[in-house]
Specification:
Blueprint (H helix, E strand, L loop, with lengths): L2 H38 L7 H9 L2 H24 L7 H7 L1 H29 L5 H18 L11 H29 L11 H24 L3 H58 L8 H15 L4 H12 L10 H4 L7 H7 L2 H9 L9 H6 L20 H15 L11 H10 L7 H13 L8
């Protein structure tokens, strides 16, 4: 091949390189803009602010800025180190001095990462992103692509034809990577950014940031101090690692999404279960025109007592559910007895006293929540052992049932009846205080007294 032909081919290759470079820059910005939009600005369609953010703060621009800052920083360091401004030819020496290059690469990598972290955090704040570490992650992953395509160590004006072709191949690979990143990672990530959730930032940021520093340093050293072949091997290994990165993050993001979906489904099921229990409680209470809303109020008071006792959120919710269904056994009591306008006969009272056992038998059939039957069976057992149906006393009575017993009595006294209006607050307080240690568990009763004292306007009644 003559020098003229080779020169012509070189000119064509360089033109192709330039076209690839500009094309990559345009595609990089377009996909970066689209990534920010689908992940963090979904409600905005064609936001001008978002466009300019992606244009002036995109990783390609920040990478160029970091190179500029690195040049200034390392120059200042060398001036301070030498004590004087470098003489002519000093810059050429520095570019071949391994010690200076090591410092320059280290400083450049750190500056690049810090700049990306700072700007991406500010952009996330500007976009009001729920999780700014995910904005930073998008920036970092697009930065990795920029680092891949920066082949200044390979393609110079004096580079041979083979190296120029390597540069073209690298461009094509970078195009492929940015498309893989967008369609596999960004599209999946967009499903995680529409609500507040805890996501460990270390999972998303540490590994790609380390990759940038290691790749950039290793790439330069293999080319400058080893050989083109060693550099090619380093490139291939880096490409493999990045593909593994994309695959790993695709799996991680989808696993987080699947976990979120499962938690959401669990919450929906829990909400539905509570609504069903509340509906059932209302149905039971409707048997007595004077006890409408009784079970829901008892559940609310029971939860308040549990919270006062410092119980866990789970225990507070459990006592609420038990209290909702504590009177379910009344479903087996005839309406004529429940709504009797006169004093109950011994036979009628004996039937009423069976409702705790009936309720226990009904709720015990719920195999997934056998604890629900606790409140139903023992909410009429007294602390002194004189209650029913089992005559249990003190710690023999499950603690949740002791809480419900106090709440149940409080609501009975603060609800209207056919024969009386709800009792005055001071009378209710006095009655509960008088029965501490006899009818009521001392700890639960004292918490109820505390709740009464805080209810200055006496709002806790029917």
């Amino acid at each position: 091949m003559t020098k003229e032909v080779e020169g012509s081919i070189m000119e064509v290759v360089k033109i192709v390189n330039d076209i690839f470079g500009y094309l990559f820059y345009i595609i990089h910005i377009a996909l970066f803009y689209s990534s920010l939009k689908i992940c963090f600005a979904k409600e905005r369609k064609g936001s001008i602010k978002l466009f300019f953010l992606s244009l002036f703060t995109n990783p390609y621009t920040l990478f160029i800025v970091s190179v500029f800052l690195t040049t200034i920083t390392t120059g200042i360091i060398e001036i301070i180190k030498s004590g004087k401004v470098m003489q002519a030819g000093g810059a050429d020496y520095l570019l071949t001095d391994p010690g200076f290059i090591s410092v320059s690469l280290l400083i450049g990598s750190v500056i690049s990462v810090l700049l990306i972290m700072l700007i991406s955090f500010l952009v996330g704040k500007s976009l009001k992103a729920y999780n700014r570490s995910l904005v930073m992650f998008v920036y970092v992953m697009f930065t990795v692509i920029v680092v891949f395509i920066d082949r200044s160590t390979l393609a110079t004006e004096d580079s041979g034809l083979a190296i120029q072709f390597v540069y073209d191949i690298n461009n094509i690979v970078s195009f492929a990577f940015i498309l893989f990143l967008y369609f596999f990672v960004i599209k999946a990530l967009s499903k995680l950014t529409d609500k507040k959730r805890y996501i460990n930032w270390k999972l998303f940021l540490i590994s790609p940031n380390i990759f940038i520093v290691v790749y950039f340093t290793f790439d330069y050293y293999t080319y400058s101090f080893c050989s083109v072949d060693a550099n090619a091997v380093a490139q291939i290994l880096s490409y493999i690692f990045f593909i593994l990165f994309i695959w790993a993050f695709y799996i991680i993001i989808n696993n987080i999404k699947a976990t979120d979906d499962a938690i959401e489904a669990q919450k929906e099921t829990k909400t539905l279960s509570v609504e069903v229990m509340e509906a059932l409680a209302h149905t039971i209470d409707a048997k007595d025109e004077y006890t409408r809303g009784h079970s829901v109020r008892v559940a609310k008071y029971s939860k308040m007592i549990a919270e006062k006792l410092g119980m866990s959120q789970e225990d507070c919710e459990n006592v609420y559910y038990m209290a909702l269904l504590h009177d379910i056994g009344k479903i087996g009591v005839p309406n004529s007895i429940i709504n009797s306008p006169s004093k109950l006969t011994d036979e009628e009272y004996a039937i009423i006293k069976k409702h705790p056992v009936t309720g226990y038998d009904i709720l015990a059939e719920i195999k997934s929540r056998p604890d629900l039957s606790t409140g139903a069976r023992w909410h009429h057992d007294r602390y002194d052992g004189k209650g029913y149906p089992d005559g249990k006393a003190k710690d023999e009575i499950p603690f949740f049932a002791r809480i419900i017993a106090v709440a149940d009595s409080y609501d009975a006294m603060t609800s209207n009846r056919s024969y009386r209006k709800y009792m005055p607050q001071d009378a209710v307080r006095s009655e509960i205080e008088k029965n501490i240690g006899t009818q009521f568990d001392p700890d639960a009763a004292r918490c109820m007294l505390s709740i009464i004292d805080e209810d200055i306007n006496y709002e806790l009644h029917e």
